[in-house]
Amino acid sequence: MSELFYNAVPNATRVAPPLAEPRQYPSAKPSRVYLFGTCVVDLFYPEAGMDAIHLLEREGIRVEYPQGQSCCGQPAYTSGYTEQARTVARSQLALFAGDYPVVVPSGSCAGMLREHYADLFKDEPETLKQVQALAARTYELAEFLLHVCKVQFKDSGAPIKVALHTSCSARREMNTHLHGRELLSQLSNVERVEHSHESECCGFGGTFSVRMPDISGAMVADKTRALKESGAHQVLSADCGCLMNINGALEKQKEALRGQHLASFLWQRTGGAQ
Questions:
Q1: Cα distance between the two ends of the chain
Q2: What does the pLDDT look like over 186-218, one tens digit per residue?
Q3: What is the CATH number of domain 160-269?
Q4: Among residues 40, 91, 160, 252, which one has the fewest Cβ atoms lying within 10 Å of its Cβ?
């Protein structure tokens, strides 16, 4: 959190949130998956969605993209609009009814499907069964590539220093920071550098950045300062909401440093751009 937050809340403590529990992974990769593209990828970072598909297809997996998909319902859910979130979530359930995995290029959206849909439908036993089955087959992209596909990447790019940013919910619910680190460690010419605010929120938080603009602005200022001080040539993240916020702040500061979705970076570094 930013210093502004801790000054405003004297009793706030700097305690890292608990991480997600380890899960069991299938012994073989599937022949088919769904891609839940997320609304932010669809509207602002379509190349990240396409590169996620390319990475999966290169592993011999057929990717299904239900055209009716939209938002996971997280903005409404975290803003307290439970009924509206339930309506959005229910429409997504109908689109991913097959029994194959759902891969999501966003840790926060994957966390919504896997961790919070059960809360939305806790009073609907039959729907809850559907939600629990969906949760069991939902994976964040980096997690799926690492633990289900068991990829072994070969780097084809020039030496570069990168800083990895993971959204706070993706870190807490999906361990996405660990998956991203391990994938990047396979790339021989990529050096991942630490930054002092790595575990802290970038200030986006969906509707939080709209409702609390001053605090949000202070948080992204802390985040971008730490990223610049790290010496990284590029910022990587698996959450496009964070990328949108961080890149917007860097652009406003007239900095050359920019962020890219992890899927696009991995695809380009492993020969996909050739």
A1: 40
A2: 999 999 999 998 888 998 887 788 788 899 999
A3: 3.40.50.1860
A4: 252
